[in-house]
Specification:
Blueprint (H helix, E strand, L loop, with lengths): L3 E3 H8 L3 H10 L5 E2 L5 E4 H8 L5 E8 L5 H17 L3 E9 L8 H11 L5 E4 L10 H10 L3 E4 L6 H23 L4 H16 L1
Parallel strand pairs: 4-5, 4-6, 6-7
Antiparallel strand pairs: 1-3, 2-3
Length: 203
């Protein structure tokens, strides 16, 4: 008779939480049976299927720069989920950040690093390369690759709304540098900022 695994056992084998396994069962991603007592049991053949597909554990990462772009954040997540489903990826975790791409202390990004370091995922799926970082993407990709994790960006060019984000990030960098040179309240800093803003509008 085929062995039946408990939810907790399958969670340990897959490197995810029991809550994630239950969510996958309810969504139909994992075939399971229910006992008279209401507990889930996963057949051994199903466990073998999940473990026998190396490279399919995915983390979705989506980011926007500010809270007024939450609708875009939701669209990113939806696109990424559809992409993963089409390729048969098991989504281990969906991670989101509302922060600048220049911010290296993002909570979601730090969570992503933990998944990579612990070997819990095989692929990071993002909408655009700059969702992970504005600068230094190749270094980040090299680090992930050294841990056996690949990055897949599903779109090439950013829409115009995200291009505006880049302008905002550049202004934040200039503001910070000018503040260090002249002081955040100085008239020189304000002149520098006005000049940069005008140059960006003229581009």
């Amino acid at each position: 008779m085929e062995r039946r695994y408990r939810v907790g056992e399958v969670a340990r084998l897959l490197g995810v939480s029991p809550t994630t396994v239950r969510r996958w069962i309810l969504s139909g991603r994992i075939r399971a049976e229910r006992t008279p007592g209401g507990h889930y049991r996963i057949p051994e053949s199903e466990v073998r299927r999940l473990l026998g597909r190396p490279g399919n554990r995915a983390a979705i990462y989506a980011r926007v720069s500010s809270s007024d772009r939450k609708e875009d954040l939701e669209r990113q997540v939806q696109y990424l989920r559809e992409y993963c489903a089409a390729r048969g990826y098991v989504v281990v975790e969906t991670i989101t950040d509302i922060a600048s791409g220049l911010n290296e202390e993002r909570r979601g990004l730090n969570r992503l690093f933990k998944l990579v370091n612990k070997g819990l995922i095989d692929v990071v799926v993002i909408a655009y390369r700059d969702r992970l970082t504005r600068f230094g993407f190749n270094y980040l990709e090299s680090y992930f690759t050294s841990h056996g994790v690949r990055i897949e960006a599903i779109f090439e060019e950013e829409p115009r709304g995200l291009q505006q984000e880049l302008v905002e990030d550049l202004l934040a960098v200039v503001s910070s540098l000018a503040g260090r040179l002249y002081g955040m309240r100085s008239s020189k800093r304000k002149r520098v900022m006005r000049a940069v803003e005008q140059a960006l509008r003229d581009c």
